[in-house]
Write a structure and sequence with these properties.
The complex is a heterodimer of chains A (about 60) and B (about 800). Chain A is about 45% helix and about 0% strand. Chain A contains 2 helices and no strands. The radius of gyration of chain A is 23 Å and the shape is elongated. Chain B is mostly helical and about 800 residues long. Chain B has 2 domains: about 450 residues, Up-down Bundle (Cytochrome C Oxidase, Chain A); about 190 residues, Cytochrome c-like domain (Cytochrome Bc1 Complex, Chain D, domain 2), CATH 1.10.760.10. In chain B, helix 1 runs antiparallel to helix 15. The relative contact order of chain B is 0.11. Classes of the chains: A mainly alpha (about 60), B mainly alpha (about 800). The interface between A and B is large, with 33 and 51 residues.
Chain lengths: ~60, ~800
């Protein structure tokens, strides 16, 4: 019975936490600029590579 | 006006690490398939250095440190340079790191099969290699932080957060768990003994999984998955929550490896609850990875890189669901010491680590050698054979673990006896162990196909170092945060305030703990209100933190160190004798100590536990007398290292002493199946031919005495003489049974050790014990009633 109680308790906590965070997220008007950092891995696609070894395949094109 | 500079990335070191990972991946998996086969076919224990006990540490160390380690370094070096828009801090350090790491692996590959071992899982390497690991890790750290320092991108991307947490935490864990006093160039004893050793070891062992096999690979996921999917990570905000909650929670969960032992219950519950809580951030990370593919799910059909990454993230989700499940005490009573755990770790290692490695290598190779991938069909073949291999392996281990766990717990109808012998259960899981061999071999075939595919790719291309023109960022645009800005602010103050109050709830005496909990709830409410009022300010602070690598690193270190201290400090500082529960282990004689060191060296702990859990079936099976009950902490207090084990391929040996006679042990060690028909234990005939190391004994006893084991002062000659006299007694006993064995052989020493297991003294009163030197003091329970001690079987 101890396991069921723990499982139900933890699940309920998660459900409540989810609902609270969801409501908080929905009610927020302004988006943070932090999300812009998610584009950092793509910075090298904005600039062409320097001609040194002259790659036959540009990095933004899949070599597969 | 911005200044531009041209950067040539050091991709040579990335190629080196990648190739090393591929080579050692094959070695690790080949050894894995071999030892899996040995469990079903004992004849495959071809020589003493090829026996299961010695090869299993080689398998685990090769898989973790050689395969995943090299893969992780390849990913870190590649992505860090791109994310920092600069070349690595130092080419010299990069080279030292690469070659130093390979030398360490070579040293491990030689010493482990030769039987040089510290006897703790994933921490077997001997002390000179430990020092080398620490030094090379420092070289890696300096190189990494030098790169962060000179970066041309102000903001530190999420992948780098995970790398930072890996670097600081692995250093802390590795150094603490490997603290040892050497007795020779190849041998040492851990600073910690018994329960302390168990706690520190699993604090390390669990977090080796967390911070060596998980956080760096999550960093790799956050960089390479968006690149492969050609879209940014699903939610950067979620990655913030994912990172901080994961690094904070992971470090607490170690005691879930010690459930149902005599460890104080508060520590067991701490481990269990933090393991359950880990489920949330882990799945947050998994969902962040999976949803990165939004709008591009068609790539799953066409792109093998995406296929591997998505399957890997799915396996990560499965493992991180299974981990908390196995940490629930009721589930753990069934799963622990069984193949279920083996299945769990392999779904993580093969599914998460192995497939992330494959995805990354397929993505990297064409770019690092400026060509196209040789064969997409072969990559797809690798994916499918690997996936089915893992599933076959994992499902076989689930069934095996559950079945053996149930059989070991099954009692007769009237409940007075056990229904199956240990050997009965072993025979029942043999078909499943055979399926495991097939699953593992399928995975290995897929991996070898990948090696061939990449080899053909490399052959068609030429090594290529990417060169880019980047903007040099202005001075002051990064790393400009002072100590005050870092620590004196609302986010830090509210977080630490809440943590202190929650700590009060856990550790304060009854009454005050409830007050502390109420305060924690109120304080958290205030923090949420404050956040709502000034969320922009909080966001701005975090953005600023991301522009400052040193404050970020310090806060990460603080987050991981809190859990570590709470778990470790009580065991160091609180002196109480009551946790030995009226039993104190009898000291090993010199011969028994020699035998113990041989037991450790042969890796017997890989198959035999020495811990009778607080569970009725355990007590009934291994008692041996029911009234002796479960293993008290005091029964292994002087064990450096502890040998509680984590898997029972053979039965528990905690109280093996005196249960069988010397002749039985001799015959069992020479030919296990002559005494235990159907056993899969390797024979240890070589122990009957080699002499134990008498000369080393005085030094070893002196070191143990320094570590707190209360050996009386003894002359070196008396120690050696004592060993020989005890050996002679055993040899004479065997001679009377018609067996000729020299008294100075390793086999005699091992028999002496096995016959000592489970012997303890019972001090009269607690006051006597507080006067007696007990080595390093014991943990106590700080409040929660310990109500599980009733697992005593009535005689």
């Amino acid at each position: 019975m101890e396991v069921f109680a723990v499982t139900i308790f933890v699940s309920l906590m998660f459900a409540v936490l989810f609902a609270a965070l969801f409501v908080a997220e929905r009610s927020q008007r302004r988006r943070s600029s932090l999300e812009q950092d998610a584009l950092l891995p793509f910075d090298d696609m904005r600039s062409a590579p320097v001609r040194k070894n002259d790659p036959t395949i540009p990095p933004h094109q899949s070599p597969l | 006006m911005t200044t531009k500079t041209t950067i040539e990335y050091n991709d040579r070191v990335v190629r080196q690490f990648m190739l090393a990972s591929l080579i050692f991946g094959v070695v690790a998996m080949l050894v894995g398939v071999l030892i899996a086969s040995q469990l079903n076919f004992h004849q495959l224990n071809l020589a003493e250095w090829l026996s299961f006990g010695r090869l299993r540490p080689l398998h685990t160390n090769a898989a973790i440190f050689a395969f995943v380690g090299n893969m992780m370094f390849a990913g870190v070096y590649y992505s860090t340079q791109r994310l920092c828009k600069c070349r690595m801090g130092s080419d010299l350090l990069s080279n030292i790191h690469f070659w130093g790491w390979q030398l360490i692996i070579a040293a491990a590959a030689i010493t482990l099969p030769l039987g040089y071992s510290r006897g703790q899982e994933y921490a077997e390497l001997i002390w000179p290699i430990n020092i080398a690991v620490a030094l090379i890790w420092v070289v890696f750290s300096i190189n990494f932080f030098m790169t962060l320092h000179k970066r041309n991108e102000p903001s530190i991307y999420v992948a780098l957060w995970f790398y930072i947490s890996t670097i600081v935490t692995v250093a802390m864990l590795y150094i603490v768990n490997h603290l040892s006093l050497p007795t020779s160039l190849t041998h040492s004893y851990s600073f910690f003994g018994g329960v302390q050793n168990a706690l520190v070891q699993w604090w390390y062992g669990h977090n080796a999984v967390a911070f060596f096999l998980t956080t760096p690979i999550l960093g790799i996921m956050y960089y390479f998955l968006p690149k492969a999917a050609e879209r940014p990570v699903y939610s950067y905000r979620l990655s913030i929550v994912h990172f901080w909650s994961l690094v904070f929670l992971y470090i607490w969960a170690g005691p879930h490896h010690l459930l149902h032992t005599a460890l104080p219950k508060w520590l067991q519950l701490l481990g269990m609850f933090f393991s359950l809580m880990l489920w949330a951030p882990s799945w947050g990370g998994m969902l962040n990875g999976l949803l990165t593919l939004r709008g591009a799910w068609d790539k799953l059909r066409t792109d093998p890189v995406v296929k591997f990454f998505i399957a890997a993230v799915t396996f990560y989700g499965m493992s991180t669901f299974e981990g908390p499940l196995l940490s629930i005490r009721a589930v753990n009573s069934l799963s622990h010491y069984s193949d279920w755990t083996i299945g769990h770790v392999h779904s993580g290692a093969l599914g998460w680590n192995g497939f992330m490695a494959a995805g990354m290598f397929y993505w990297l190779a064409p770019r690092l050698w400026k060509t196209k991938l040789h064969s997409i069909s072969a990559a797809n073949f690798h994916f499918w054979i690997g996936t089915f291999g893992i599933l076959l392996y994992v499902v076989a281990m689930w069934i095996s673990g559950v079945m053996q766990g149930l059989m070991l717990s099954a009692t007769t109808a009237d409940g007075s006896g056990l229904q199956y012998t240990f050997l009965d259960t072993l025979q029942s899981i043999r078909p499943l162990m055979a399926l495991r061999i097939i699953g593992g071999a399928m995975y290995l075939v897929g991996f070898i196909v990948m090696c061939w595919n990449l080899f053909m790719t490399i052959r068609a291309g030429t090594p290529y170092n990417e060169t880019r023109e980047v903007d040099v960022i202005e001075r002051g645009a990064k790393d400009n945060m002072g100590w005050k800005d870092t620590f004196i602010n609302d986010p830090v103050a509210y977080t630490f305030g809440a943590l202190i109050l929650i700590g009060g709830w856990l550790f304060l005496p009854k009454g005050s703990d409830v007050v502390s909990l109420v305060c924690a709830v109120i304080f958290t409410g205030l923090a949420i209100r404050k956040f709502n009022q000034s969320s922009q300010k909080w966001s701005f602070w975090y953005e600023k933190l991301l522009h400052n690598y040193l404050p970020f690193t310090i806060l990460t270190f603080v987050a991981v160190v809190i859990g570590g201290l709470i778990q470790i400090i009580p065991t160091m500082t609180v002196n109480t004798a009551k946790n030995v529960e009226d039993r104190v282990q009898k000291l090993y004689t010199p011969l028994e100590l020699a035998g113990r060191d041989i037991y450790v060296s042969e890796g017997c702990y890989n198959c035999h536990s020495q811990m009778i859990r607080t569970l009725v079936p355990d007590v009934m099976r291994y008692g041996p007398a029911p009234e002796q009950g479960y293993s008290r902490l005091g029964e292994s207090i002087y064990d450096h290292p502890f040998q509680w084990g984590s898997k029972r391929t053979g039965p528990d040996l905690a109280r093996e002493g005196g249960v069988r006679n010397n002749l039985w042990h001799y015959q069992h060690m020479m030919d296990p199946r002559s005494m235990s028909p159907g056993s899969n234990m390797p024979p240890y005939k070589h122990l009957a031919e080699k002499e134990f190391d008498q000369k080393a004994l005085p030094g070893k006893i002196a070191v143990l005495a320094k570590l707190g084991v209360p050996y009386p002062a003894m002359e070196a000659t008396a120690i050696k003489l004592s060993a020989l006299e005890q050996g002679q007694k055993i040899a004479t006993d065997l001679k009377n049974s018609g067996v000729q064995l020299e008294p100075n052989t390793e086999l005699v020493a091992v028999i002496a050790y096995l016959q000592k297991l489970g012997q303890y003294e019972q001090p009269k009163v607690e006051e006597d014990m507080t006067k007696k030197k007990l080595g390093i003091p014991f943990p106590i329970k700080p409040g929660i009633p310990d109500n599980f001690r009733s697992a005593q079987v009535k005689p």
